[in-house]
Write a structure and sequence with these properties.
Number of strands: 0
Radius of gyration: 23 Å
Structural class: mainly alpha
Shape: elongated
Mean pLDDT: 81
Number of helices: 2
Distance between the termini: 24 Å
Strand content: under 5%
Low-confidence stretches: none
Order of helices and strands: HH
C-alpha cells in the first residue's frame, strides 16, 4: 500500500514536468521566431490568426497518469524485492 501512495505523486510530478517543459519549449520557439517577410511576397498574404492548443481525447491524460503510476509502482516493487536479502531465491 505504501508503494502505491508513493507512485501517485511521482506520476503527478513527472506529468507536471512533461507539460511544463513542453510549454517552455513552445514559448522559447515562439519568442525566437523571426519571419522572413522581405522575399517579394505580399504582406497581406500572411496568416493573421494563430491557434494555440490541440485537439485530442481529454481522457488520454487520465489514462497516461494511471499507466505511469502503475509503471512507477512496478519499478518500486521490483526494486524493493531486489534489495531485500534473499529475494527471488
Amino acid at each position: 500500500m505504501k508503494i502505491i501512495i508513493r507512485a501517485i505523486p511521482i506520476s503527478a510530478v513527472l506529468h507536471a514536468a512533461y507539460f511544463s517543459l513542453t510549454f517552455l519549449e513552445g514559448y522559447i520557439i515562439t519568442k525566437a521566431y523571426v519571419p522572413d517577410v522581405g522575399k517579394g511576397e505580399s504582406v497581406y498574404m500572411l496568416q493573421n490568426e494563430v491557434a494555440f492548443g490541440f485537439v485530442g481525447n481529454p481522457f488520454s491524460f487520465v489514462y497516461s497518469f494511471i499507466a505511469l503510476a502503475f509503471t512507477c509502482f512496478i519499478i518500486q516493487f521490483v526494486f524493493q524485492k531486489l534489495t531485500r536479502k534473499g529475494s527471488f531465491r
